[in-house]
Design brief:
globular; two-stranded antiparallel ribbon
């Protein structure tokens, strides 16, 4: 007897097909989530949106901090931009030297400190027994001192590069050498000028109120200088000279075949960074109307380096963005510590905040927000 198979009815076949369409194997949300974890989809999703997540987290942190009671949002904004602008000028010098020569220059701050002390020596006429009287210094005279700051900073930087850095064979040796230069210059400043000197602002007085906080002419001037420098550097790297500067850092032998001198480009990078450091010293000295030996390194180098790493030390734009973000963070941290009367427990809030941000950035995104692998 032949066994006949029972054909499914038309209705049953349609129901089964509909069921197959609705519930294909592995299509449930649980199965999709499992496949994402096992196939590396989650890691790739996080990696592709990491920068956006960091930006979003940074903005949320800033907004959360500004919503806390001890904070004055206007003062945080003004102080953050003012300090961030100085961080950016120093950080641009760090990024420029590192991008061009692959040297981390821990003497960058001393280009500014030394320039500021040379300006003090000029203002007192070489008489080390007297101090600067800000009332005797005019705006025109201080603007002219900017040229002195540029010359001193650039000259010192080029000399360090020519007589020290070029003779060293490794990045680590250069790092140690620049740190030793800082110690040497700080000691000379202390021996010659003493523990503290008065330093005048370029422009005295308040310009206008913003969010209930008075903006001084000095703060406006600092912001204008930063914008001008950023525009000039952006233009530089779009010129043949800027392209040659980057090419000599990445492929010095190949660049030399095209007539580009790596040594000349190195001197250009150091000289430009030194000029930026000198201008930063002139501006920073007027913020607190006084300077101390090595003040640009002890007060500004670590935040500037952190800002450059935060934005991307191989990116000029990243150095500026990172410095401004860090400036806002440092200003908020300082107000929080003061508002909650934690000064005894956190004696140097700006440096503590800078180290904390640096550790987070190195752990999450070592290349920075806008940087690329060097």
């Amino acid at each position: 007897m032949t066994q006949q198979t029972k054909e499914p009815t038309q209705g049953g076949s349609g129901a089964d097909a509909a069921k197959d369409d609705q519930d294909p194997p592995g299509s449930s949300p649980l199965d999709s989530l499992k496949a994402m974890f096992e196939g590396g989809g989650l890691e790739s999703l996080v990696a592709s949106h990491r920068t956006k997540m960091i930006w979003g987290g940074a903005i949320l942190v800033v907004l959360a901090l500004m919503g806390l009671s001890p904070l004055n949002p206007g003062r945080v904004l003004v102080s953050g931009i003012r300090e961030g602008a100085v961080y950016a000028l120093v950080g641009l010098g760090l990024a420029l030297i590192y991008t061009s020569t692959r040297v981390l220059n821990f003497a960058q701050g001393e280009f500014g400190s030394t320039a500021a002390y040379v300006i003090v020596a000029i203002l007192i006429g070489g008489n080390l027994g007297r101090d600067v009287n800000p009332d005797e210094v005019t705006v025109t005279y201080m603007v002219g001192m900017a040229l002195v700051a540029v010359i001193v900073g650039a000259g010192l930087a080029v000399a360090i590069n020519l007589f020290i850095i070029r003779r060293l064979n490794s990045a680590f040796a250069s790092l140690v050498a620049t740190a030793a230069i800082f110690v040497l210059l700080q000691g000379i400043q202390f021996v010659v000028f003493g523990p503290r000197r008065t330093f005048p602002r370029i422009i005295e007085g308040n310009a206008f109120p913003l969010f209930g906080t008075q903006i001084s002419y000095q703060e406006v001037f600092i912001t204008v200088v930063l914008v001008t420098v950023a525009v000039l550097l952006a233009g530089l790297f779009r010129t043949p000279l800027g392209v040659a500067l980057l090419a000599s850092a990445q492929e010095p032998y190949a660049a030399s075949l095209y007539g580009v001198s790596p040594k000349a480009m190195s001197s250009l990078a150091w000289g430009t960074a030194g000029a930026l450091g000198g201008v930063a010293g002139l501006l920073a000295g007027g913020i607190f109307r006084g300077i101390e030996p090595g003040f640009m390194t002890t007060d500004y180098l670590i935040p500037a380096f952190t800002g450059a790493v935060l934005g991307g030390i191989t990116s000029m734009t990243g150095a500026v963005v990172g410095a401004l973000l860090l400036g806002l963070t440092v200003a908020a941290a300082q107000q929080l510590v003061t508002g909650y009367q934690l000064d005894a427990y956190v004696p140097n809030a700006p440096i503590a905040a800078s180290f904390l941000v640096l550790l987070i950035v190195l752990a999450v995104r070592p290349t920075g927000l806008l940087g690329k692998d060097a």
